[in-house]
Design a protein that fits this description.
Layout lengths: L1 E4 H15 L5 H13 L2 H20 L9 E9 L2 E4 L3 H15 L22 E7 L4 E8 L1 H4 L3 E5 L4 H16 L7 E9 L1 H11 L11 H15 L14 E11 L4 E8 L6 E4 L1
Parallel strand pairs: 1-3, 2-4, 7-8
Antiparallel strand pairs: 2-5, 5-10, 6-9, 7-9
Helix pairs in contact: 1-4, 2-3, 6-8
């Protein structure tokens, strides 16, 4: 049994959001650079501008996007960890509050009905899984809502199968058009239930851009979906071209024999995600 005070989690959340708010992930940056090399005309100009913006953010230590996002936190806590200190949710929210204050990040979280802002970007959108071992995995994802608003959940029938899954993914991106600031990164959840499927799609966005699922049948869907999306011609910032998406990542879970849930969570070109193991 390993004892960890939740203050360590709080401090880690602060570190990760301060870092995430200022830069693209390395895999996102590489994907955008590769896309910029292959494009011409307005699409090349748009990608060059996005890359220049990232350089300025790094140099000036300023947010890489004005939408500093909803604070999504994914924790995998080893079953041999004993937590002490403040309640876990309180510690995570304090970490978010400190990061958004210290980083001068925009606070965007409000009551859904009154629209009154909470003034510190809390509460975080917290997911907790219990894993083996005595370590804690902390993943922090600032999720902007220009892209989040373009996401969809489909309750397909089993008969729709792989083609139905692909159609759902491409339909979602095509309907979004230029609104989510493409080229997008597409997270897809396949299986589970109404709620857990959406979580799978969010979790898929924490993978490295360009990575492949270890199951070949799932990896095949990722490759085919990316191909079809890039054939839509929407392109960078809607200017056309070869690159509408820089990646598609799918996560799967067993589901009921009567269902085939598919969730498509859109991420803009600004992929910001940081991870640490405690």
């Amino acid at each position: 049994m390993r004892t960890i005070n939740t203050k360590e989690i709080c401090d880690c959340v602060t570190r990760l959001f301060l870092k995430a708010g200022l830069r693209f992930t390395p895999s996102c940056l590489a994907a955008l650079q590769n896309a910029e090399q292959t494009e011409t005309g307005a699409a090349k100009f748009a990608l060059s501008a996005l890359l220049e913006n990232e350089k300025i953010a790094q140099r000036e230590q300023m947010p890489v996007c004005q939408d500093t996002g909803m604070s999504v936190v994914l924790l995998e806590i080893g079953q041999d960890v004993f937590l002490t200190g403040a309640p876990l949710t309180q510690a995570v929210n304090e970490g978010v509050r400190r990061a958004y204050e210290e980083g001068n990040f925009r606070k965007s979280i409000c009551d859904p009905l009154t629209r009154v802002n909470t003034a510190d970007n809390t509460p975080a959108h917290l997911h907790v899984e219990i894993a083996e071992g005595d370590r804690i995995s902390v993943v922090c994802l600032p999720k902007g809502f220009g892209s989040e608003n373009m996401s969809k959940l489909f309750m397909l029938t089993p008969a729709q199968g792989e083609e139905g899954i692909l159609n759902a993914i491409v339909q979602t991106v095509n309907a979004a058009g230029s609104r989510p600031c493409p080229p997008v990164y597409v997270g897809v959840g396949i299986g589970g239930a109404f709620d857990s499927c959406a979580y799978l799609a969010k979790k898929a966005l924490t993978r490295e851009v360009g990575s492949s699922h270890p199951r070949e049948d799932v990896a095949k869907i990722e490759r085919e979906a990316l191909k079809r999306i890039n054939e839509t011609g929407i392109g960078a910032q809607g200017f056309g071209g070869k690159t509408t998406a820089i990646g598609v990542s799918c996560e799967v879970a067993p589901t009921h024999i009567a269902g085939l849930p598919v969730a498509v969570n859109i991420q803009c070109h600004c992929v910001r995600c940081e991870k640490e193991i405690l």
